[in-house]
Amino acid sequence: MFEIIKSGGWMMLPIVLCSIAAMAIIGERFWSLQRKRIIPAELVPYIWQLHRDNKLDDATIRRIRMSSPLGRVLAAGLLNRKHGREIMKTSIEEVGRQVAFELERYLNALGSLATVTPLLGLLGTVGGIIRVFSDIAVGGMGDPGILSAGISEALICTASGLTVAIPSLFFHRYFERLVDGHVVRMEEESLRLIDIMQGNREDV
């Protein structure tokens, strides 16, 4: 592997660094965007039980807020439950936008890596071709080894850039869709909580 990277020329260094960054982001996002970490299944029933038992004090709401992103969103509504439906909804929407922004953390960077690495590969390819023609200009067409070295450098850079870009683009789209799903689910749970708190829906 080291020999392949070495034969790809100096442009392989930024491509390798991009691949390391992409793997780090993908691993971190897989860990952070787990459904159980974003939308704990037991949280909403727990809040409903506290509501029925009239045990929603400030300390409990603070614990709910610290528990998960969904907890942050619901806690914003719980803190304003005495001010009516519209105030609850507004406060939930404000915090929800902040949470959605945080869930998209590093996704722009991953998308940028998916865009940049093929260009780095292309730049390495151009460098390899330039090297081939420079060597031909100096030594002529007599040595096929000179040609093969430059062409090899060009092809390795192209392949390496695409190897990093393709999975980066795939996971970027996947995580975007995953975040959208989490946001929609949090909106549904928040609206249901508002309706129950304001007496517009029965707790089921």
Structure description:
- The structure is a single chain.
- The protein is an all-alpha fold.
- InterPro entries: ExbB/TolQ_transport, MotA_ExbB_proton_chnl.
- Pfam families: MotA_ExbB.
The number of E-state strands comes to: 0
| Rounded mean pLDDT score | 84
Order of helix and strand elements from N to C terminus: HHHHHHHHH
**Largest sheet composition:** none
Name some characteristics of this structure.
204 residues; mainly alpha; 82% helix
SSE map:
Layout (H helix, E strand, L loop, with lengths): L1 H6 L4 H21 L2 H4 L4 H10 L5 H10 L1 H11 L5 H19 L3 H33 L4 H54 L7
Helix pairs in contact: 2-8, 2-9, 5-6, 6-7, 6-9, 7-9, 8-9
Keywords: Cell membrane, Membrane, Protein transport, Transmembrane, Transmembrane helix, Transport
Protein name: MotA/TolQ/ExbB proton channel family protein
Organism: Methylomonas subterranea
Give a summary of the structure in a few sentences:
This is MotA/TolQ/ExbB proton channel family protein. This protein is an all-alpha fold.
